[in-house]
Amino acid sequence: RGAPSRGAGAKIHEQRSTRVSEMLSYIWNSLPSLFSTPAEPVVVAEPAVLVAEPEAATLSKRSTPKPAAGMTPGTGKARRELKRRQQEDEAAANAKLQPYSISVRQEEAGRTMVAWTHLTARPGDVDAWVGLHQLLDKEADDDEELVHVFGSLALSSRIQFKGISSTKFEGECVFPLHAGRLENGDYLIALHNDVGEKRGNLFLAVSQTFTILNGAVCSNKRAKKC
After folding, report:
1. What is the mean pLDDT of residues 99-109?
2. DSSP per position, the chain
3. pTM of the full predicted structure?
4. 115-142: per-residue pLDDT in tens?
């Protein structure tokens, strides 16, 4: 066979150059995809679902006393019983702080008002009462049986008293103070109940002192006239 002509050689060379160019172009175009960072997947947040904590629900149930046995919830009797039990629970908690207190105020009409607090029980259930006592000089008093001590105070036995029949743990009442029948001196009103061994001789709380002078009540102990 004879050698290929020069025209045929040039054509073959041109074809090879075209293939090389196409290959280089393909490689060049592929470079960005080889070195590019893949896109991060998109995360879709799920909607939050609010669920009540079981402990909170348990506490809520515990805080509400159940009606007493034999009572239908919603009836007047059941509501009164529920209210009574709630008052007793509240009273038990308050009794740890200041279970008893008493104070006296004199109205313009001449009435003596006594405000009291008795948190350990309903006063009517324990025969609670308030009594008038005179402040005494214990050393000068010969009859020791008539002297009661409350803190640093020496007090006489009750001179006048009034029972408390209320079923509430605090309240106010009119005290039948007959100042015209009392001798001049310093007095106070004390809170008692008939629970325990002393039964009435136990002073639960005492009011502020006031003075009886010539049959009238004076709030100032040192007053010479009312």
Report:
1. 90
2. -PPPPHHHHHHHHHHHHHHHHHHHHHHHHHHHHHHSPPPPPPPPPPPP-----HHHHHHHHHHSPPPPTT--TTSHHHHHHHHHHHHHHHHHHHHTT--EEEEEEE-TTSPEEEEEEE-SS-GGGTT-EEEEEEB--GGG-S-GGGEEEETTEEEESPSEEEE---SSSEEEEEE---GGGSPSEEEEEEEE-S-SSSTT----EE---EEEETTEEESSTT-S--
3. 0.54
4. 999 998 999 999 999 999 999 876 555 5
Give the tens place of pLDDT for each residue, 143-178. 555 677 777 788 898 999 999 999 999 999 999 999
In this structure, the number of other CB atoms found within 10 A of the CB of residue 40 comes to 6
